[in-house]
Structure formats: structure tokens, C-alpha cells
Amino acid sequence: MPNRLTIKDIARLSGVGKSTVSRVLNNESGVSDRTRQRVAAVVNQHGFSPSRSARAMRGQSDKVVAIIVSRLDSLSENRAVQTMLPAFYDRGYDPIMLESRFSAQRVEEHLHMLRQRNVDGVVLFGFSGVAEKLPSFWHPSLVLLARDAEGFASVSYDDEGAITLLMEKLYAQGHRHISFLGVPHSDATTGKRRHDAYMAFCQRHALSPRYALPGLGMRLGYEHVASVLSTHTSALVCATDTLALGASKYLQEQQITRLQLASVGNTPLIKFLHPEIVTVDPGYAEAGQQAAAQLIAQMNEQAEPREIIIPARLA
């Protein structure tokens, strides 16, 4: 029964644990010759062949690229990955996915493992502080997404432009009491740049700023939206769609209907659930395409690392 056997099946038939089977298949140390032979016998008997993705993870595929996302549940990063994958598949690359959870140390560990396994290139969703952990070895074969770093190719969003577009739209509609829900300045782009753009617009137009910077989570939007509302607030700009979803739930529960919501993202979920929210598309889909194209060109020595900025547009 070729290709139908799982690691769990092999472990059961050979009388060892799944981790032991994995070490044998990966040709790792720490397994006795007798155990290795027993597992190999089961594998040979049933004609087991590791899946394509498993071979890619072990560096046994001819062309492998890694995509390191910061969060697997990120709406924006998933949108970029969706456009990235077809580009890699079309050129014969096997993509593998890893998660950093905003840990520079985890990124460092991932990159060390990927180098050992001879992965051809990496698209890394960046965040504040991660650039200091990037070895120069990766200069020609890594593309940063959503961040820039000296010596590395990058695809970034126009964070200031995205917020400015929303503020201009709301201002043109007659709103003069516009609040802001964002991300701490420890996040240099989604946090500091988007908040700075809001503050700059308020200063230019003599508006009184009212804001909170709780973070990225949907629940944070839900829990903190009340803190930025006053009896005069007529519009609320959210730095991300995720914050807007949380804020919208709170407003619905409180039956507050007079407030115009606006957010950066234009993700499919926000468009489906809340078409009334004014959104800016920062170019997540285009960023994925550009990052894949840039990495493929670098891996084939057809381009040098360069900085690409995706323009924002009103959805």
C-alpha cells in the first residue's frame, strides 16, 4: 500500500514511538542500529514514500523555499501567502511554512535549521528587532516582508499613506472628531508609523487626537474601543482590520450606530462581515506576489536585493 502508510502506522508496526520513526526518516542520530533496521524493514515492506512537503523539510527536494510568518492566524499575512504560493509552485519550488510568533530568537533558530537543510530561499514576515538577528549569509536569498533591513531585499507597505488616505476620506465626509485605535510603538510600522500619520493629520487640520494603542488582537479592539470614544466622536480609525472587528462587535453590543468605522486591511473577512467599514487596501496580495517574484529572481541570480514599497489605495 504505497504512500498510504503514516508515521503513526510505521511506529505501531515497528513497535517504537512516532518521534523515533521521524528521527529514522530524517537520518538523525540517537537511534540504535537495531531500531533503525526495524523501522527500515517496515518502511521497505510497505513501500512507504515521504510526502513532498516532508521531503522539502528535510532538504531532499530539488528546489525548496521557506515562508516564515509571524502568526499563522494573521489575516494580512495569509492574504500575502495566498498569492505567494502559486508563484513558487509555477517555478517548481516546494514551499514550507514556519511561524515565528514575533520571536527574534525563533527566527534565528528557523534560519539556522533552514541553512542546514540547504533551503534555497526564504520569505520572512518581519517585525521590530528581527533585522539584528539576520545573518549576512542570507543576503542573496532572503526577502523581508512588511519590514526593511540594510543589505536585504524587502517588500514594505506605505503605512503613513494608508492612514492618511483614511483620514482624508473621513475629513472630506465632514468628520472632525476622529479617534484612533492602534498598536504600541514597539511595532515600528503598524504601530509607530500608522499612529504618527494619524497624529500628523490631526495637527495639520487642528483636530483633537483621541487614541489608544492596545495591540493587534481582536479582543484588544473590543476591550479598548470605549476608551477612545466621547460624546462627540463620529469616526474611528483602526490600524488593522483585526482591531476593527473587535471594535465593531463592541459597538454592536452597545447599539452605537452613529460611528463610522475605518481600518487598514481590506481583508476578505472584513469585506464580507462589515462592508460598511471604510477600508484601505495596503496591498497584501500584491506584496506576496512581489516578494515571491523578487526571491525567485535572486535565487536565479537575475536580480540584486532591493527595497519595494507597495502603495496603499482606498478600497
UniProtKB/TrEMBL annotation:
The keyword Transcription applies. It comes from the Bacteria. GO terms for molecular function: DNA-binding transcription factor activity; transcription cis-regulatory region binding. Residues 5-59 form the HTH lacI-type domain. One of its GO terms (biological process) is trehalose metabolic process. Keywords: DNA-binding, Repressor, Transcription, Transcription regulation. It holds the Pfam family Peripla_BP_3. NCBIfam families: trehalos_R_Ecol. Homodimer. This is HTH-type transcriptional regulator TreR. The lineage of its organism: Bacteria, Pseudomonadati, Pseudomonadota, Gammaproteobacteria, Enterobacterales. The gene is treR.
